[in-house]
Design a protein that fits this description.
Layout (H helix, E strand, L loop, with lengths): L2 E5 L21 H19 L10 E5 L6 H13 L7 H4 L12 E3 L14 H18 L8 H22 L2 H5 L3 H12 L1 H16 L5 E6 L9 H12 L4 E7 L1 H13 L3 H16 L10 H7 L4 H18 L5 E3 L10 E5 L10 H4 L9 E2 L2 E6 L2 H13 L1 E2 L7 H4 L4 H8 L7 H16 L2 H11 L6 H11 L10 H4 L9 H14 L5 H23 L6 H5 L22 E2 L1
Parallel strand pairs: 1-7, 2-5, 2-6, 3-4, 4-5, 10-11
Antiparallel strand pairs: 7-9, 8-9
Helix pairs in contact: 5-7, 5-8, 10-11, 10-13, 18-23
């Protein structure tokens, strides 16, 4: 089935909620199906729960920042809560999901640990959110649906659970100061915290949620609270892995693993400083461009005990895997969808719902795909679609875009939305150039970044000769002996676009494809150059045309100014 992706550029910072009936055509269809199969597995185990040691009720949506973890998790939760609604029921009528047909779900809202400010624990927040929802309903006289006996029962269970939690958080000295019977009573209560919470959840679902079957506890950005990740996982392990509860997590597993490793390392005095330094470095990194630091390399430079470091990493991995088994770890896919056809609608989907692509336009064939000022694109895969988008907005043509996908195009849903949002800017090409420069700053070694910085400082007269000078300095890595005559140019007036094209041709054909940095540098340089020279034509800076493009050897453009009514259109094959 073709995959469809709706992007409303007026709501680019909102979490996108898909309806159940859209799941099969969603780019996250495999994730939704895998998650629902896990929900069924948890529900079946919960219904026959008898203190199994292997019971696990956690489903994790994992992946890099911006991949769509929050969107897919919230979409699934919303569809489970309202699965009998018309916008969800078609998907849940599938035979493989029949077990859920008569099951119902409740939720307490998504928890965001990154917003924790004090010493509050995850378990405290969960109880507080349950009680807040209960209290709000009691205050709403129009929705009074709980009789007094049920109300008293729930209040008593909340009190018991909170009292047990208070006792656990008391210091042992405070407990032992009390009378022996009172102290023993409180210790017994604290040991039964998990059981108290189990009774609270069961009655909460029965009386407050009208006999619903399961309570969904969803935690977003679980790994962002770096210092508390271990303690939150411990709250889950000790108190929340029990029947009638389904836990959804959205997190980046690499960073979660580093958080747990950081906690374990604090138990070893020899490694504490190393992990604190690593933590500080990661916090300083831009979260959208989070790049995991290789702890092993840091460790070697510090000449510390390798076997101890390995022990820490293995312990952290095993701890996480026990709580989040491999089949419950749902890795969000890259946006690249291979041969699957992808439709991207840039605009308000409510205004396009009654329009069919074939009845309106295909951007791949028609170069003015405007529907009420909304852009409608269709392509065989995302890389072709983005190339088409760039051409529509800038007249810059990227050839063989699938070969460049992993280098220059966004790889996450958030990155895609932010890239497409450049179309809202007054000058797309200026923003596109900034985008290319940002990629170079975040992904290339300093020697290549410096080249782009230098090119940015050049005017149109010296741009060509500066590119040649820069390539000449790094030529030993490129094998460009066949174009020595071009690289040896000294006079900027003798360097033409044909010379630069010859350089690019040789770079593309003789580059070492095992050198990822060099490949990325060449692709970015070609696009950057295309943007710069396209500005000359489209801004009609006629005084530069002869100087910049024309020579007796290579007549790339006319050397006389065009008439005012003529339009110069530049299509650059990259």
């Amino acid at each position: 089935m073709d995959k469809e992706l709706w992007i409303n550029l007026n709501e680019e910072y909102k979490i996108k909620i898909e309806k159940g009936n859209e799941f099969e055509s969603s780019i996250f269809s495999d994730i939704y199906n895998a998650a629902l199969n896990n929900v069924i597995e948890i529900a079946k185990q919960s219904d026959i729960y008898q203190e199994q040691e292997d019971f696990n009720n956690i489903i994790a949506f994992t992946g890099d920042r911006g991949k769509g973890k929050s969107s897919s998790m919230n979409s699934l939760i919303d569809s489970l809560i309202y699965k009998h609604n018309i916008e969800n029921e078609i998907f849940f009528n599938k035979q493989e999901y029949s077990y859920l047909k008569n099951k119902s779900f409740a939720e307490i809202g998504v928890i965001d640990p990154s917003l924790f400010r004090g010493d509050e624990t995850l378990f405290e927040i969960i109880i507080a959110k349950m009680f807040q929802k209960f209290q709000n309903k009691l205050k709403d006289e129009k929705r009074e649906s709980i009789n007094h006996d049920e109300k008293r029962t729930l209040i008593k269970l909340f009190q018991n659970t909170f009292q047990a939690l208070q006792t656990i958080n008391l210091s042992r000295k405070d407990i032992y100061k009390k009378e022996s019977i009172e102290a023993l009573s409180e210790l017994a209560t604290s040991n039964n915290l998990k059981e108290s919470f189990k009774h609270l959840v069961a009655n909460y679902l029965k009386y407050f949620e009208s006999n619903k079957d399961y309570l969904i506890i969803a935690i977003d950005d679980f790994d962002l609270n770096f210092g508390k990740s271990f303690f939150m996982l411990e709250d889950i392990r000790q108190f929340l892995i029990q029947p009638k509860i389904i836990i959804f997590l959205a997190c980046q597993t690499n960073q979660l693993n580093d958080s747990i490793s950081n906690y374990i390392a604090q138990q070893y005095d020899a490694l504490s400083n190393l992990y604190y330094r690593q933590r500080e470095l990661k916090i300083q990194n831009n979260i959208e461009n989070y790049r995991s630091i290789n702890i092993s390399q840091n460790f070697e430079t510090q000449n510390l005990n390798k076997s101890l470091l390995n022990k820490i990493n293995v312990s952290a991995s095993k701890y996480i895997e026990k709580l989040i088994p491999v089949h419950r770890n749902l890795e969000l896919p890259e946006l690249y969808l291979g041969r699957n056809k992808l439709h991207v609608y840039i605009g308000d989907e409510s205004k396009l719902n009654n329009l069919k692509l074939k009845d309106t336009c295909k951007a791949i064939e028609i170069k003015t795909p405007l529907i009420e000022n909304k852009i409608l694109l269709e392509a065989d895969n995302l890389s072709h679609l983005l190339a088409e988008f760039i051409y529509l907005k800038s007249n810059i043509f990227i050839d063989n875009p699938e070969n460049k996908y992993n280098l220059i195009f966004p790889k996450t849903l958030r990155g895609l939305v932010e890239f497409l949002s450049l179309s809202k800017k007054k000058n797309f090409k200026i923003e596109f150039k900034k985008y290319i420069l940002n990629i170079s700053n975040y992904n290339l070694p300093n020697k290549y970044q410096e080249i782009f910085t230098l090119l940015e400082s050049q005017n149109l007269e010296t741009l060509n000769i500066t590119i040649l000078n820069c390539i000449r300095k790094i030529r030993n890595n490129l094998g460009l002996s066949s174009i020595d005559n071009i690289l040896s140019a000294k006079n900027y007036k003798n360097v033409t676009i044909g010379d630069i094209n010859a350089i690019f041709f040789n770079l593309s054909h003789f580059i070492d494809y095992s050198n990822r940095d060099m490949i990325l540098f060449v692709e970015l340089l070609k696009i950057y150059y295309s943007i710069r020279i396209s500005d000359i034509i489209f801004n009609q800076k006629i005084e530069y045309i002869t100087l910049f493009y024309y020579s007796e050897q290579i007549n790339c453009f006319q050397n006389s100014s065009p008439k005012k009514e003529e339009e110069i259109i530049l299509k650059l094959k990259i």
